[in-house]
Amino acid sequence: MSLGQQLHPHLPFLRRYARALTGSQAHGDAYVRATLEAIVAAPDEFPSNVDPRLGLYKTFHAIWSSSHLEDGPVLTGADGQEAIAQARLARLTPLPRQALLLTALEGFTVDDVGYLIGLDSDDVEALVKEALSEIEAQTRAKVLIIEDEPIIAMDIETIVRDLGHEVTAIAVTREDAVREAMAERPGLVLADIQLADDSSGIDAVKDILAEFSVPVIFITAFPERLLTGERPEPTFLITKPFQRSTVKAAISQALFFDEATAPA
């Protein structure tokens, strides 16, 4: 099998990575094109002692680190959640951004990433941690909890605070929830469905969303009330009893893609 045939299946993924790294399809494709031109010009210099995909990304990084095809991440050709994600990644400094994308997006091991960017595995892990910390700092938010069970409310509050967010209030009824939301508009709402006075968390959320846009995560023992197929269903729905890790992941995901917390 020729070198071109070995590399061909990996090119779409390299283009995806290049776009995420540069924040632009045009700039990303320019780097990929330069990478392929370098391989064609000097095939004997292509790394032969590693997996072809690893060698392809290694060559790409040599081009990336030595060329100036663009001045920095520029957001073009994206909209919605992709644009928000690009905005966040663009705020990261180059090495942490590379380490995060290569591990989280491309699935390379920390040892592979160390080979690609010329660092040891401990340094790569530190860069990934730095990148995640930067993103967490970007997505700090005020959170309204709508939950009438005190123990569950306390547990959710602890999870929220552990992630570095501020809890504005814990509401136990629809009326409380709407009042607290209007008093200090939160950046995220965590809502149960069945509330203390037999009012509905669904109705509370509808009232809040009628006033302003905010991401909502429903945490409920009655998911069937939301998964009806008859109306738009929530993006984030967690069933009780819940795992703390599930709630943490949902909060991070909801805020990562929220336009209100996107970097300017």
Automatic annotation (TrEMBL):
<dbReference type="InterPro" id="IPR053867">
    <property type="entry name" value="PhyR_sigma4"/>
</dbReference>
<dbReference type="Pfam" id="PF00072">
    <property type="entry name" value="Response_reg"/>
</dbReference>
<dbReference type="Pfam" id="PF22029">
    <property type="entry name" value="PhyR_sigma2"/>
</dbReference>
<keyword id="KW-0597">Phosphoprotein</keyword>
<protein>
    <submittedName>
        <fullName>Response regulator</fullName>
    </submittedName>
</protein>
<feature type="domain" description="Response regulatory">
    <location>
        <begin position="142"/>
        <end position="255"/>
    </location>
</feature>
<dbReference type="InterPro" id="IPR011006">
    <property type="entry name" value="CheY-like_superfamily"/>
</dbReference>
<dbReference type="GO" id="GO:0000160">
    <property type="term" value="P:phosphorelay signal transduction system"/>
</dbReference>
<dbReference type="InterPro" id="IPR001789">
    <property type="entry name" value="Sig_transdc_resp-reg_receiver"/>
</dbReference>
<dbReference type="InterPro" id="IPR053866">
    <property type="entry name" value="PhyR_sigma2"/>
</dbReference>
<dbReference type="InterPro" id="IPR014605">
    <property type="entry name" value="Sig_resp-reg_PhyR"/>
</dbReference>
<feature type="modified residue" description="4-aspartylphosphate">
    <location>
        <position position="192"/>
    </location>
</feature>
<dbReference type="Pfam" id="PF22233">
    <property type="entry name" value="PhyR_sigma-like"/>
</dbReference>
